[in-house]
Amino acid sequence: MNKKNIIIAIIIALIILILPLVLYFSVTNKEDSALPDSNIPLQTKTVDGLTITLRNATYTDHEVQLGYEIQGGGQSENDLTYAFYNKNDIFADSAFGNIHKLGDKHYYITTITDQVRNLPEQLDLTFEIKARSNLARQHDIVIPFELNLKRVHS
Question: Do 69 and 102 meet the contact criterion of CB atoms below 8 Å apart?
Fold first, then answer.
């Protein structure tokens, strides 16, 4: 093998090794994710540096699921908790869900409660997001959202 063939082989080997890494980091390492399309009219509130936009809501025989965008902090920064009310009567104060990081202190969070027994077909929902302004305080920030949801039978 002459020197020219060795150089060509090294260049091809480098391309084969480096190109997948470049493609991997340029395609999959994006911090920003796309927000899902909204299925309700957007509601946005800002309190103490937290901006929350309620984007999605679904009410079925099995659960109430809400999706919201939060800027200025998330679960770990604010120790978020939730309360679900129908006509001012609490029906759930626990929830589970998913957190999707969109950027620095920017998240999309789904909150789900399966405590939906004995609720009417039409839900006059007040959804409260409770946060702490610092870890030494109780949940001193309360951000309520109100909406009407019709049950979707599954």
Answer: yes
Beta strand 64-71 with 50-59 is antiparallel
The C-alpha atoms of residue 72 and residue 50 are separated, in whole angstroms, by 5
Residue 126 banded pLDDT, cuts 50, 70, 90: very high
- Based on its alpha-carbon atoms, the radius of gyration of the chain, rounded to whole angstroms, reads 23
pLDDT in tens, 111-123: 999 999 999 999 9
As a whole number of angstroms, the distance between CA 67 and CA 106 comes to: 14
Which of 122, 124, 142, 123 has the alpha carbon at shortest distance from 132? Answer: 142
Taking the C-alpha atoms of residue 98 and residue 109, their distance in angstroms, rounded to an integer, is 6
Do the beta carbons of residue 35 and residue 108 sit within 8 Å? yes
Cβ(67)–Cβ(55) under 8 Å?
yes
User: DSSP character for 152?
Assistant: B
Instruction: Tell me the three-class secondary structure of 34-52, residue by residue.
Output: CCCCCCCCCEEEEECCEEE
Which of 13-17, 79-83, 101-105, 146-150 tops mean pLDDT?
146-150
